[in-house]
Amino acid sequence: MSGVVVVGAGHAGLAAALELKAQGYAGEVTLLDRSEFAPYERPPISKVWIAGEGEPGDLFLRTPESLQESGIRFIGGTEITGIDRERKVVHTSQGEFFYDALVLALGAIPRALNAPGRELSGIHHLHTLEQAVALRAQLADAEKLVVVGGGFIGLELASTLADRMQVAVVEAAPRLMGRATSEYSSAHMRARHEELGIEFHFGAGVEGFEGEDGRLTGVRIAGGPLIDADVAVLGIGVVPNGSWVAEAGLEFQDGILVDDELRTSDPHIYAIGDCARYPSQTSPTGTTRLESVGNAADHARRVAATIAGTAVPATDIPWFWTKQAGVRLQMVGHIQLVQEWLIAGDGESSAFSVVGLADDRVVYGESINRPGDHVALRKVLAAGAGPLTEEMKSRLGEGLRPVLDELQRAAPVAS
Amino acid sequence: MAEVTFISADGTTSTTVEGNPGMSVMKCAQVNGISGVYAECGGQLACATCHVYVDEDMPAEFFEISEDEDEMLEATASDRLSNSRLSCQIVIKDPAESITVRLPEFQR
After folding, report:
1. Of the partner residues B30, B42, B74, the one whose CB lies closest to the CB of residue A372
2. What is the pTM (predicted TM-score) of this model?
3. Backbone angles phi, psi at A201, to 5 degrees
4. Within an 8 Å CB–CB cutoff, is residue A329 touching chain B?
5. What interface predicted TM-score (ipTM) does this complex get?
6. May I ask the CATH architecture of the domain B2-102?
7. What are the chain A neighbours of B27 within 8 Å (beta carbons)?
8. Rounded Cα–Cα distance for residues A143 and A51 (Å)
9. Where does residue A48 rank: exposed (0-12), middle (13-18), buried (19+ CB within 10 A)?
10. pLDDT digit string (tens) for B10-20?
11. CB of A11 within 8 A of CB of A18?
12. B31 reaches A (C-beta below 8 A)
């Protein structure tokens, strides 16, 4: 029996392998990854770990030995080179692996920034643990950091390091986290970061990097100033891995195309996590792709159940979280559907929520230091609760929970 | 090394693992492959999928919760009881300590 081969041991791949065993899958489960590290946890990399003194091992989710005990064969340092769908075999740098089912959990890689001087030492991406180790070594004696990109990774890193060095953030858009949050949360977070002394350059592109003796000394803004920098980190988004599957006859369009069961056009091959583009009724294009631990966990549970032949759980409502400048920001729902924004609680305070409505129904919400609001939003979204009345909207300033609890009680199905 | 004992949801099996001071009960479960603790957010009080029931005989300090944990505990998949905790917030303090928790039936 060939069993299941999972390629990629990030949050999606590891969870799929563990969940297959938890669902009682009797065949062999092989987990391959290009990294030599044991499967590790990603969210802390851009937060506590990068500023701390911990070891890479502190981030390991499982050791290869404990995986073995769970019936999972983990093989690190393995680069995938192709698939032979006819023979159902994966070609890798460590030889061939036969499969009954193949799960591609290939993840994504940071978007490249090609500008003059890019080859200078001191310019980093922050996505893998290997990159984090290299970045942390150079941050040790750095005094000036420039972060290119005002998204989650860049802002988490910037606020983590702001007490140790001068930090500037360069963002092409007019506001922070423009793809992922409302203008209200964007503005609130900007103010919190500025309190830490972080300097922002909006609407700014990088013209090039300047250096001396091969080492970075500054980042030049197009039509703008030269910002002094010992270290620069590029956090301008990611692109999904796996474009090579096209050579094996599978479709790739900004992600490996899969159906509702996360299956590619080959019934034996699945794609999950950051690299998978799947059908979505809430997206204008009809498909979507998400980069989050929540999405990875959701896909892992569903693909494992499909392969193991057990009951497939319902799709999770997308949720995300970030911690920056001491603020916990939690998001849930579909931001692209929002027609109307309302503030719940005191928007001038350090803890409030922002609710997104479409046809008066809650479709999305984000909570700043309000975990209880986030929990209530999740429940209301899961229950598909009914529309807010004008009277309810007028009460949101007093807080979100009473209004959502009222909606929840009237909802057709319990969460 | 401190000891952490996980009792299964149905009460039929128990597994004891070792942990160092500073480690959370969630992390102990994770690295030792205790199934039934998801910990999707990695211990940041953002997901409520590392819910456990602390043994009733544990000292009072094990039942003290922060306001944020209190709010996130409202999101647990299995019923919240008076001894409910998020295991990412239970941190081993003493190398001689021994902590016992029971796993809930569901984490999501």
Report:
1. B74
2. 0.94
3. -125, 105
4. no
5. 0.86
6. Roll (3.10)
7. none
8. 14
9. middle
10. 999 999 999 99
11. no
12. yes
